[in-house]
Amino acid sequence: KGYYFITDRGLSRQGNARDVSDALDCGVTVAQYRDKDLGMKEMYKEALALKSICRRSKALFLINDRVEVAAACDADGVHIGQEDMVYGEARKMLGKNKIIGVTAHNIEEAVNAQEAGADYVGVSPIFSTATKPDAGKPAGIKLIEAVKRAVRIPVIAIGGINLSNAAEVVRAGADGLCAISAVVASDNVKAEILKFQKLFE
């Protein structure tokens, strides 16, 4: 339970490596490397660097969408969206011991992800979000509650979350949450993450 860290090179003020390191210093146990623009080679190189930071803290290192990069650098797993590679293919490429998280926009997608074998679902977007304009219509707190009732796997809330609405997200039962803009675009990544971590205490 707690803050789920996702990188954002475009918003970051101090770079992904420093952001991930700061997050892990705050007790974050999962870091997801997300970059839709980098080429495979650059992404692989940065993934190796971020993975070694995670290894030092015994945190899990996941890669968003690029299953082949995750396989090549032996990441702990991947996070895939509904429009990315299908779960079965990702599982085949990574093997049975890796973590696969799946984005869900509604109850049906969450249940399907669990049935396919997903390790957790990322429910998104809860509120309207600037970091992912194509994320779809905000689903609100009700979706977290409904998905929590429908599945047994952990539920991570993503999309438009900030300190003014995060307490509601935790109350709704989210096992974790991510607030990309509120954290990586801030002057003090550690201070911001700790505020979110406190909500889970």
TrEMBL record:
EC class, as a word, reads transferase
The family database entries (NCBIfam families) matched by this protein are listed as:
thiE
Question: What residue intervals traverse the membrane?
Answer: none
EC no. given is: 2.5.1.3
What the entry lists under CDD domains is as follows: TMP_TenI
Task: State what protein this is by name.
Answer: Thiamine-phosphate synthase
Q: Name one GO cellular component term.
A: cytoplasm
* The reaction(s) this protein catalyses: 2-[(2R,5Z)-2-carboxy-4-methylthiazol-5(2H)-ylidene]ethyl phosphate + 4-amino-2-methyl-5-(diphosphooxymethyl)pyrimidine + 2 H(+) = thiamine phosphate + CO2 + diphosphate; 2-(2-carboxy-4-methylthiazol-5-yl)ethyl phosphate + 4-amino-2-methyl-5-(diphosphooxymethyl)pyrimidine + 2 H(+) = thiamine phosphate + CO2 + diphosphate; 4-methyl-5-(2-phosphooxyethyl)-thiazole + 4-amino-2-methyl-5-(diphosphooxymethyl)pyrimidine + H(+) = thiamine phosphate + diphosphate
Q: Which HAMAP family match?
A: TMP_synthase
The Thiamine phosphate synthase/TenI domain is annotated at 4-183
Concerning SUPFAM superfamilies, the annotation shows:
Thiamin phosphate synthase
> PANTHER family of this UniProt entry?
THIAMINE BIOSYNTHETIC BIFUNCTIONAL ENZYME, THIAMINE-PHOSPHATE PYROPHOSPHORYLASE
Question: Per UniProt, which keywords does this protein have?
Answer: Magnesium, Metal-binding, Thiamine biosynthesis, Transferase
